Amino acid sequence: MNLFAIWCLCSINLVLGANILNCPPEGVKFEKVLGLRPANSSRPELLHRSPSTATPVTLECIAKCQANQECASFVLYYGSATCYWYRSIANATEEDNVIDENSAWFVKKCFSNDGSCGKLWIFERIPGATLIGNDTKEVPGAVTRSECERYCLDETQFTCRSAKFAIMDGAPSYYDMGGVKGRCILSDADRHQLPSSFRVSSYSDEYIENQCAPSTNSGDEFCAYEEYDNTTSTHIDLFFPSKTKEECQKLCDEFEQFNCRAYSIIKGDACYLHSEDSKIYGPNALKFLAGSTYYEKANCLNITVSCSETYMTVEYEPDSNFNGKMYMEGFSDNPVCSAPGEGRFHPVSLKIPLLTGQCGIIKADGPVNRTLLSGNLLIQFNSLIQTQNDRLIRVGCIFGNETRVVVGTGVHVSPMQPNKGSVIIIPTENSSVPNVIMKIVDPKTGLDISDTQIGQELQLQIILNQPNNLDIWASHLIAMTERTDESIFLLDDRGCPTDLNIFPALRKIVTKDRIELTAVFQAFKFTDSPIVRFSVNIQFCVGECPPVICGTNIVSHGRKRRGLKIETINGTSVIKLNRNDLRHNKTSVMFQMPLEYIMIVKDSNKYQADRLVTADNQKILVAGYDYITNEVCLDYSLVIALIVLWVLVQIFFVIGSIVLVKRYKRYYQHECTRQSMEELHKNFGIGFSNLENRRVHWADNENIL
After folding, report:
1. Sign of the CA dihedral running 504, 506, 507, 511
2. Rounded Cα distance, 98 and 530, in Å
3. Which residues does 172 contact at the CB level (< 8 Å), separation at least 6?
4. Which SS3 state, helix, strand or coil, does residue 189 take?
5. Which of 20, 326, 517, 633 would bridge with 624, disulfide CB 3.0–4.6 Å?
6. Phi, psi at residue 455, to the nearest 5°?
7. What is the DSSP string of 637-700?
8. Nearest partner of 139 among 154, 123, 129, 124, judged by Cα
9. Where are the strands (E) in 238-347, listed by range?
C-alpha cells in the first residue's frame, strides 16, 4: 500500500470513524436529528436539489449520501427542498451548531442488520426535549449516545420505545466522535403514547425515539386522524400525485421506509406524507394553505358509548394516570355533564340525558324515521387547564331502525381580544435600584406575545436590568383566569415546579447588565376562559440568591419572602424603593414584589373528525364532507331513499302537469267560443256588453205615452 492510499484511509477513518467503515452496507443507517444542524461555516457541499421546490427530496438525499462513502451526514432544508452534505462531524461542538426547526440533520451510523427493521433512519433525536417520568430502566454508568441507542435496540425484557440521554457537564460536543458520555435511561413509552409527558428541556437533555419499536395494539395504536382545514405541514418527505384522501391515508398507514405520522391533501388530489407531527414544535410547524387539508395521527382512546331511550352513557378507561375530567364541551361546571378522573385504569363514566336538551346535545332528523342525537365530549388530562394533548370526541346515538354510536376527534377553542399587563418598579430619587419586568415571548423571535395558541412553545422571562449587586429569585407563580375564579400553582412557595408536565423549573441567566429567570413551556388555557393571567412574587437579595434543590436534577430559584407595600398610580401597580431597603445580609430576602402578565390562549386551527362513523365502523346519514370538492358522502340506505323520493316527486310532477294542461285546454276552448259569439253579436248591433240586467220603474200617473 503506497503512502497516498494510507493517507486517504486515515482521512476517511477520521471523517467517518472506524465503526462506519467496518459496518456491512446493509447496516449503515441514519439517525435523524430535529431542531439542530451544523453551521454553514462547516463547509457543506450540495448533495441534491429538487427541480421544483414543491417536490420533497428526503428519499433522494438519503440514497445519495448512502452511496457516497465520504458523506458523514447531510442537512435537509424543507423550505427549499435542498440538502447539503458534510465530510466530517468530528469537530462539531455546541458553538458550531445552529438551532433550526425548518431543517433535519441526518447522520450516518452503523446498526447491525437485526436492529435495522427496514427503516431509513433508526432513531429520531430531539435535543432540548425530554419525556417526563416513565423511566423503565437506567443503564449503569456513563455511556456514549451510540451505546445508549444500542442498549435500547438490544433490550429483551421490554420493548424499548425511547431513551433519555443527559449529556454530562463539561461535555464538548453533541456527537460521539469525541467520546461524549452521559446518563442513559430507557423507557417502554414514547411521546406518541404519552404526549402530555413530552416536554421542552435544556439542550443537555436529548429525547431519542426508536423507530423500529413495534405497535402496541397489532397496528391499531393510531386509529383516528385529527383534521386541520386549510393547513399543511412545512416538513414534507414524500409526494404522490393523483390520489384520493382514502388512497393517501392508506399509503400513510402502510408506508414502511419511515413512520408516517401525518399526510396532507393539497389541490384536491396531491398526496404528501410527513414523518413528523405538530406535537414536536407546536402549531408553528403548520402553515396556512387555502384548499389544503392536513391529517395527523391520533392515539386510540379506550371509549365505549351505549345508548338507551333517554340516556347516552360514555365510559373511558385510561391507560395512563388520568386525574383530569371528562365533560361535554361548554358544560365543564355542570355536574350532570362532567365526570372527574380517578387515576390509571380507573374507568370514568358519564351518563348524559338525551331528551332534556342538556349538555349541548343536538338533534338532527333524517329520512326513514332516523334521528341523530350527538354532542362534543372533551377529555381533559388536567383538572383545571387545557393543553394541546386534550381530545375532543364527537359522540352520539341514532334512533330508528337501529342504534348507532358516533366517534370522532378534534379540538377548537374560541378566541377573544388580546390584553396584557405587568407590574413595574419606579426607583425613588437618589436610588439606583433597577427595574424588574416580566414578559412572555416567542423563543424563536424574542417578540412579546399577547395572544397565542394551545401547545405553542413560549418563554417566560423575568428580567432584572442593571442589577448593581442585587440578585432575584421567584416563587408563588400562579396561572389564573381573568376573574381569578380558577387558578393553578406553577411554582410553589419555594419556587419549585408543581407539575413538570405543565411548567418547568426556572433557569437563571446572568450577564453583565441583566439577570434573567426564564423557563420554556407550552401554552395552555383554562376550560371556560381563553384568558390566562400569570402572577409571581419576586424576591431580592444582595449578592447572590442561592438556588433551591427541588428534587432529582431539578434546580430552581425560589425562597421564602417578606412582605412589601404596593402603591397604585394611574391604575398601575408600582413599587417604590430606596437605599434603606438594602440593609440585609447577603443571602437573606430583602423584599418582595408581585409581577403580572395577561395573555390570550386560543386555537386558530380548527380541526375535527374526518367523518362520523358508527360503532361497527359503518357510515351513517351524512358520513363525511370534502371541503375541497364540496362533495358530501351519504349513507347507502339514505341514497336509495332519496332516489325513491326523487322518482315519486317526478311522478307527482308529471301527473300535476297533465292535469294543469287539460284544465288550461278546456279554459282555452271556452274563451275561444265566448270571443267568437261576441264578435257575431257585434255584427248585428248588439253585443254581450249591452246585455246588462236593468231595473224598470213604472210611472205613478195614468198619462203614459
Report:
1. positive
2. 34
3. 93, 94, 178, 180
4. coil
5. 633
6. 90, -10
7. HHHHHHHHHHHHHHHHHHHHHHHHHHHHHHHHHHHHHHHHHHHHHHHTT--TTT---------S
8. 154
9. 238-240, 262-266, 270-274, 286-299, 303-307, 311-316, 325-328, 338-340
Amino acid letter, 102? N
Instruction: Provide the 10 A C-beta neighbour count for residue 631.
Output: 10
Quick one: how far is CA 361 from the chain centroid? 26
pLDDT value for 151: 92
Concatenated DSSP letters of 475-513: EEEEEE-TTSSSEEEEE-TTS-BS-TTT----EEEE-SS
Sort strands 514-522 and 457-465 into parallel, antiparallel or unpaired. antiparallel
The predicted-structure confidence for 108-137, as pLDDT tens digits, reads as follows 988 865 555 888 999 999 998 888 878 899
Residues 564-595 pLDDT 10s: 444 444 433 334 444 444 443 344 445 667 78
**Other C-beta atoms lying within 10 Å of the C-beta of residue 651:** 10
Task: Map grid coordinates 433550526 to a residue.
Answer: 100
**What is the rounded CA–CA span in Å between residue 341 and residue 577?**
48
- Give the tens place of pLDDT for each residue, 333-391: 888 899 988 877 788 888 888 877 788 888 777 666 677 788 888 888 888 888 877 88
As a whole number of angstroms, the distance between CA 189 and CA 136 comes to 9
Q: Which residues of 212-238 are buried (b: 16+ CB within 10 A; e: fewer)?
A: bbeebeeeeebebbbbbbbbbbbbbbb
444-499 per-position pLDDT tens digit? 788 888 788 888 888 899 988 877 778 888 888 988 887 777 888 888 888 888 88
pTM score of the predicted model: 0.64
Q: How far is CA 19 from the centre of its chain?
A: 39
Chain mean position to CA 574? 38
C-alpha cell belonging to residue 91: 469537530
∠ CA 520-410-34, nearest 5°, is 40
Q: What is the 3-state secondary structure (H, E, C) of 543-584?
A: CCCCCEEEECCEEECCCCCCCCCCEEECCEEEECCCHHHCCC
Tell me which residue has cell 500500500: 1
Picking from 342, 336, 343, 297, the residue whose alpha carbon sits closest to that of residue 314 is 336
Query: In terms of pLDDT, which residue wins out, 18 or 414?
Result: 18
C-alpha to C-alpha distance for 64 and 154, rounded to whole angstroms: 29
Give the three-class secondary structure for 34: strand
Q: Are 359 and 331 in contact (CB under 8 A)?
A: yes
Of 289, 228, 294, the C-alpha closest to 261 is: 294
* Cα(47)–Cα(87) distance, integer angstroms: 12
Q: Are 363 and 391 in contact (CB under 8 A)?
A: no
Q: 515-545: per-residue pLDDT in tens?
A: 889 888 888 888 878 888 888 888 887 778 8
pLDDT at 254 over 70: yes
Cβ atoms of 68 and 100 within 8 Å: the answer is no
* One-letter amino acid of 61: C
- 204 Rama class: left (phi>0) / alpha (psi -120 to 50) / beta: alpha
Q: How many CA atoms lie within 13 A of 547 on its CB side?
A: 13
Q: Please, what's the b/e burial string for 306-326 (b: 16 or more CB within 10 A of its CB; e: otherwise)?
A: ebeeeebebbbebeebbebbb
> What SS3 state is found at 149?
helix
Spatial CB neighbours of 43, under 8 Å, sequence gap ≥ 6:
86
Which amino acid would we find at residue 37?
A: R
